[in-house]
Design goal:
Blueprint: H1 4-15, H2 26-31, E1 41-53, E2 60-76, E3 80-95, E4 98-99, E5 104-105, E6 109-122, E7 128-139, E8 150-161, E9 165-174, E10 185-195, E11 198-204, E12 206-211, E13 217-224, E14 228-238, E15 241-254, E16 265-280, E17 285-302, E18 312-315, E19 318-328
Antiparallel strand pairs: 1-2, 1-19, 2-3, 3-6, 4-5, 6-7, 7-8, 8-9, 9-10, 10-11, 11-12, 12-13, 13-14, 14-15, 15-16, 16-17, 17-18, 17-19
């Protein structure tokens, strides 16, 4: 269970921003050709991993994750759009494991609390340009010092090509990126809508596809360079109920406040297969309940993925449960 101090921190972060949330990714917002139509959105994502043996140690690990995200428009019309996002994530860890190579006890709690702002502008030629800035602190002691702060900034442009397609350009900076941290990196993509049932994005760092080959059946996929994958196959059994299955691969990264090297990050990687049900109670409230099996799970502390075999802590494969709630106002 999360300590009372942890619960108070998360509750305070959420109550401070009860006017905003986002079930959309940042890319979804940037790709939207319409301005002035943002809703207030609030999202909760809870995930539980059951006890798993820790490789090479006489210990087990149990993890419970609570995530809150809120996005709201501050000002919007057909030409300009300002929105704010606030997020809080708490990872509660029950384990006697130690970080290999350091004999340091594994943290009981990890946090990621921060805020961001996004601006978009439509020009007379229908080009859309903007910027996104966020400051978070993924750490066992958030905002303990500047060494536990993650700054992410992206400039982007959407250039229309035909009636519904567009070229996309990005320039991204992050001091905690999985690869090349602290170096501004460009990106590009082509957004297309081939038919009413087939649309997508081809480019770097993101490629995505949404296809409805027959009525009620949907195939979705998204790949973020270099190691983030999301896939779904879903079928709408009722107007309000959808069943789905999929494969996911992602990671999390934290700055321990007392790490021996400020360039080190405590990273967690996991692959999983999931299945679940989505219930759309109305146009404002959606609930997802998922079960799954996680594999290829490990923690390590180092500068980048190339250090994954140093200070590494392997976890046995195991089941997981997940609950997601999205509210749009």
């Amino acid at each position: 269970m999360i300590s009372s101090k942890a619960a108070l921190l998360v509750t305070a972060a959420v109550l401070a921003v009860t006017t905003a949330a986002s079930g959309q990714t940042a890319f979804d917002v940037w790709l939207n050709p319409q301005l002035g139509e943002l809703d207030v959105e609030l999202e909760y994502d809870g995930r539980a991993h059951f006890n798993a043996d820790v490789g090479g140690q006489t210990a087990q690990m149990h993890m419970v994750r609570h995530g809150f995200r809120v996005r709201a428009p501050v000002f919007q019309n057909e030409r300009d759009e300002w929105s704010v996002t606030l997020r809080a994530k708490a990872l509660d860890i029950d384990t006697d494991a130690r970080i290999p190579g350091t004999c340091t006890p594994f943290p009981d709690h990890l946090w990621d609390i921060g805020a961001g702002v996004t601006y978009r502008h439509r020009f007379d030629n229908d080009w859309i340009a903007g910027a996104d800035l966020s400051i978070t602190s993924p750490s066992d002691q958030p905002y303990n010092s500047v060494d536990e702060v993650n700054v992410r900034a992206t400039a982007f442009a959407r250039i229309p090509h035909g009636e519904s397609n567009a070229w996309l350009l990005y320039l991204n900076y992050s001091n905690a990126r999985e690869f090349a941290p602290g170096i501004p990196l460009p990106g590009f993509g082509y957004q297309f809508e081939a038919t009413d049932s087939l649309r997508g994005l081809v480019g770097l760092p993101v490629t995505a596809l949404h296809w409805e080959p027959i009525e009620r059946l949907t195939l979705e996929g998204r790949y973020f360079v270099p190691r983030t994958v999301f896939t779904r196959i879903s079928y709408r059994v009722l107007d309000e109920v959808r069943l789905y299955a999929g494969y996911e691969w992602d990671s999390e990264h934290y700055f321990r406040h007392d790490r021996r090297d400020n360039n080190y990050r405590l990273s967690y990687y996991e692959q999983r297969v999931v299945g679940g049900v989505r219930v759309e109670f109305n146009e404002h409230v959606t609930v997802d309940l998922l079960g799954g099996f996680a594999f290829e799970r490990f923690w390590f502390e180092g500068e980048n993925y190339g250090d994954r075999d140093r200070h590494r802590l392997n976890l046995d494969d195991g089941p997981l449960l997940r609950l997601q709630l999205a509210v749009r106002i």
